[in-house]
Amino acid sequence: xxxxxxxxxxxxxxxxxxxxxLLGKFLVRRFDKYKSSFMITEVEAYDGHRDKASHAxxxxxxxxxxxxxxxxxxxxxxxxxxxxxxxxxxxxxxYPAAILIRGVSEINGPARLTRRLIIxxxxxxxxxxxxxxxxxxxxGINIPLRSIKRAPRIGVAYADKWALKPxxxxxxxxxxxxxxxxxxxxxxxxxxxxxxxxxxxYGLVGLAQNKHGVxxxxxLRQRNKSKPMIVLISSLQDLKxxxxxxxxxxxxxxKKYWPGKISIILPCKNKKFEYLHRGTNTIAFRMPDNSxxxxxxxxxxxxxxxSANLEGKKLATTILEAQKYFGDKVDFYVDGxxxxxxxxxxxxxxxxxxxxxxxxxxxxxx
Length: 366
Known about the structure:
Helix content: 10-25%
Structural class: alpha+beta
Oligomer: single chain
Number of helices: 9
CATH class of the largest domain: Alpha Beta
Order of helices and strands: EHHEEEEEEHEEEEHEEHEHEHEHEHEEE
Low-confidence stretches: none
Radius of gyration: 23 Å
Mean pLDDT: 91
Distance between the termini: 51 Å
Number of domains: 2
CATH topology of the largest domain: DHBP synthase
């Protein structure tokens, strides 16, 4: 299901209910030749004159006038002399209520969001619609209430007791089973990252062709920035996405060991993928021997998949161990029970077609 939300979807006597319902919806920004779509993960609600944290607490001004418009308009204001903040108006006309979009998949923080999506005053007081070039879509992702956290709003210490009101809503990581493949697919396609069981160990995965997601994984794992990560693929055809052309000898070796627990280092000299090969001009690929993971890969495309632990720390063999490392910093966890396998064996094929073992692992190669 994919539905564009209209004015009626944003109007309610309960702004807090609208705020919670926005979680899991998608903020869509159209540019000249393409559009970008991001799942909304964090919002703050501001409701009425009584709310001392609201811009409308002291009445209507030129700046806050859009808050008094009817539901389904954007309220975009400038703050600290440098940042734009994006809000959706939710009240009936002349009742000031709005929801600040604080975070979306890949982007944490309202200032980073507007900077990344090039949102400024030109959207202020404009309708939330495709005609404006900035709108909200429902793609059928249902966020369970148990996965929604409430907390005080940020940066409103001046608002007395209102500063403590739990009117900030955000998604805590979803805990899924490996049977929830549809939800896993939907979330990964938003650019999210999560810990999932593979055919070897728990991996911290994200779209390999999403540079921002890849960098997020490097930062979360505290991984050496010069070390490439293993990329999971569903077929040899996926290698063409990375401008890799195989010799007949190399192709034969890959077909011999894949699907399987062997990662194979291949040359990748295209500078476009430097964020993956980290200047080494090589990337290790693997086609996992796991039907569920392969099915996900066929829909999402290649995924980076380093182990789900901090650099140099013990491998996570359960979701609980992965949670101890990453807590709420990832978007979801898939519980596959306890995994006792080893990391994949890593090999490299030289120009003459000979194999060199780079890292011993789950499969012994003589």
